[in-house]
Amino acid sequence: MDIVLEILKGIGSLLLQPALYVSVLIVIIAGFNRTKWERKSFHIRVHSPWQELKGFFGLGIVFGVLVSIVLIFTGFTLTIGWIAIFNVVLIVLLLVGLFRMTSTAYTIGIASLVYYGAYYFDWQLAPFEDTMLPIKDLYIDNFMIAIVFILALLLAVEAFLIQYSGANQASPMLRKSGRGKWIGAFQLRRLWLLPLVCFIPGHGFAAFFDWWPIFQIGNQAFSLLILPVVIGFQQQVQSQLPKQATHKIAVRVTSLAIVIALFGVGSIVMPILCLAAFVVAIIGRFWISYRHRSEEQNAAFKYTPQSDGIMILGARENTPASRMEILAGEVILEANGKKVTDRAELYDALNENRAYCKLKVRDNNGEPRIVQTAIHEEDSFELGLFMVE
Question: Which of 273, 298, 323 represents a domain boundary (last residue)?
Fold first, then answer.
């Protein structure tokens, strides 16, 4: 029973870290800003303003539990000084770069470089320093090697999250191209919370909070803490399908994770490679984002007005269009047997049979297909489509 109580206290330690509250606040603001831009483009919101918050407390927590199990069984420990620096770095990057700058390559990479600088230049981190384990007495090489491997693992998790949920409920938008024409695009933006269970050598936070959970293992005391690791992802897509874009980015992040893991192996023999690993992680993740942006700017626009039909950006949930499974990037060629090239022609064709809708669509492979559904009294007359005209 005492162990359960101490674990519950450790969970409470998550609520004492300011990075968590800043993350939640930014996620909420981002959700309402997104709906504002959706209304500007389509005069109606596409997704709930709470979508980002639901994603924040979603799949990432599962991975947080899995990674925590790995950390516990490997005996991984952190120091109070590193945790304090990590919180500061995470908050600054959230405020400066929002979702785009909160990859673990940035947060863990920068925090670790700053922490190593504190060790090398003998900076005093009080009151965050643990008197039972001062930074000058830390086996800094072993500590940094462990951080490199954790960074590689978290980058692999980041790649998985981008691959399998980065494009979920992508937010469509309309914007003007350099030539002044309206084109469609998608904003991919996610923030995931990974709560990691960590042990801290010494009494640590118990010096500030007498209720803080302490575990005794042999002759060594450990404090329990849950670290709010936040992984962010943000890209704009206008030349390809969102899932195609997230797949490419995920593959590149996976490659970066493998490279960092190799640096970790090399640092066992040559510890200085730890610092190189953090620098490579930061530069590599920046290059991945820059390369995607460059490719998007140089590629032909996908979501543009069509001469032979109506380009679709997506469909609202629980509408005739969603029942017909009309997808982003598809083009409506005919409605109820009539060719359509704009919104007015589409609605004129729908007016001929208000109880039924049959569309001829060109899919993303360039192949035609027929979709159809009954129109119910409570259904939207506009079918729930988001169009580029």
Answer: 298
